[in-house]
Write a structure and sequence with these properties.
- The structure is a single chain.
- By secondary structure, the chain is an alpha+beta fold.
- Among the domains are: about 1-45 and about 100-250 and about 570-630, no CATH class; about 260-280 and about 295-440 and about 495-515, no CATH class.
- The protein has helices spanning about 5-15, 25-35, 80-85, 90-100, 115-125, 185-195, 260-280, 300-310, 325-335, 340-350, 355-370, 385-395, 405-430, 435-440, 500-525, 530-540, 565-570, and strands at about 20-25, 40-45, 110, 135-140, 150-160, 165-180, 200, 205-215, 215-225, 240-245, 555-560, 575-585, 590-600, 620-630.
- Strands 1, 2, 3, 4, 5, 6, 7, 8, 9, 10, 11, 12, 13 and 14 form a 14-stranded mixed sheet that branches.
- The longest helix is centred in the last third of the chain and has 27 residues, at about 500-525.
- Residues about 50-100, about 445-465 and about 465-490 have low confidence and may be disordered.
- Keywords: Cell cycle, Cell division, Centromere, Chromosome, Kinetochore, Mitosis.
- This is Protein zwilch.
Amino acid sequence: MSDLANVYQLFRSKFEDNDFQYYYPPSYIRSLTECDDKIIFAFRKVQNHILSSEMDTVRPKQSPNSNSSLDLTGSPLRDVSFEQFEEMNLSKEYQESSVQNLWTVDEETYAPLSTEKARSLLQAFISLECRIGRGSIWVLCCGTDSEQKVLLQLSVNAASNNQRHFTRGVVRFSGVQPSNSITLGQLIDIHRQRAGEGMKFSPKIQIQQWCKLHAQITLRLSWNTMGEGSTFAVERNARVRLSQEFPVNNGAFSRSSPAEYFWQQLQRLAMMRERIMDIRANRESGYARNDVCGEAEMDLEYIKQKVNNILSSFLEVEPVTYNFSTIIDMVSLVQKRKLTDVMERLYDALTLCSSYEDLKAAIDYIFHLSTHSNIVNVPTNGTRFAQLILAMIQDRLAIPLLTGSEPYELLLECGFSKLMNDYRTIFTEAGIYELEFEKLFQPQVTNTRKSRYATGNGPQLDTHHGAPSKRSATQLFQSAAGDERVREKSILLSNFDEDEVKLRLNRLAQVHLLLEHLLLLESAVNVPSIYGRVCELYLGRAPYSYGEVYNRRTDLLEFELDEFMLLRKADQVLPCARRVTMSSANMLQRLETVFYQNVKPILPGRFYPQFECKEVDSKHEFWCYEYDRIESL
């Protein structure tokens, strides 16, 4: 636990020539220490030669064109469109660096100090009087000295009696070496030379090895070994941690996804929510035509005829059998399945409407058909739209007049029901996981503050389309026949809750990202026995907001598991990184050495031209770093 706020202020006041930050450690320090506690980091701030660091916070909004009408796609981020973002003409160098480099764009601005200056800075701090604090101070060094030091560390552990306890650390670059030339015995010899004869070597050695199964999938294998004759061969009892970074690409992932259709359905629901909010706030944009027109839009007469066929014509229903071998096959089958549920078929027809007026007229036509025609296909699902139609078929309800956002509210509920059914079918029929949306939609944190437009418990002022009707909004509808025994008491036209809809959008976005993760896992790893565990862990965490998906480059899936099949796959590839930890101690001191090796440099190359890789007679080589940490006991 870091507590260095006072020390940070002292550094800023005493050493004004340097730049400091009190924040989470840079990526290269995390790789060496595997610690995420805040640190004080000393460096020189310079301009990024690739791209201004501010651009790292710019994220695009994607609104892909849908092939279906009522194209309610997009995101709630209205500031930058995807097309505008592309026009920013990001340099190829930036795009390549964001993929290939192990450091972040911000870390391109952290320039090193000279080794002498770094050492004098830490020594000057030791000589200063300061208030109690605990944590680590790191200084980035240029590596031009004989030992090629790239980082110096000073850990502060102040006791209540103001007797400060310091632990020192140093990180050296030890060169680029062929991976097959590095042995565990070599590393033990290096550590023992630094420890000297006065320290006793601990035979327990910790080894972590990373290997790439795919560009986005990494396995970390961890085990302990004893004795000097050990090797880097992975032991059968190694702990396995899988990390998968799915490339969200600020929402652009759907363009090349086999599940693109389902993400577009979710985008449509998100835009419906925006329309409802606009109408409830008396904004004309809620009734706009251009945003809802799609390539497959149909005129109102065609939609009425389609609706009439759905309600009045017999549909031959055959048992559905899904013949599939992979998850991607299942996704395709569900996308192309023949709709048999009445409300799903009505929803599919109503999304062909090209405007608010057509949608409102089409729903009104459904209500009239339900009252005056012989309906052979009666809705059975539990949406309010289905309940209204059923009540009118049974002469328990007069024809209501829709106003304000009510047409979109009824359509939104049907859209949620259909998309949930799609996802549930994919996961269940593929034998992956049983989705329980009732539990997923339960709020995790109670939020007592709500928008004044959040619920539909008050009449809406429909300034664009006339005054409220006596039979609109939240009024209870009476039986047209006046029969008190069959009076309808509980069906509401408007029951919109902003927080509930937002939670549903967030959770469905999470389910979709989970599906994308599974598709990637299947294509690269194909170990079905882990899918259930993946679903359980991923759905157990709090979801991102739907809008936040458009602000992310990747989505991380990370979990530990016991799976022998993954160990076998790891044996078939060369490691991409390795971390070996060993220690020696006596009565007074303890020395711990971390040997970190990676196929790529962990420090920005622009600041270390002397480390440029020379010709090595090997196709697989490691950039090697040694981190010594010595503490007083």
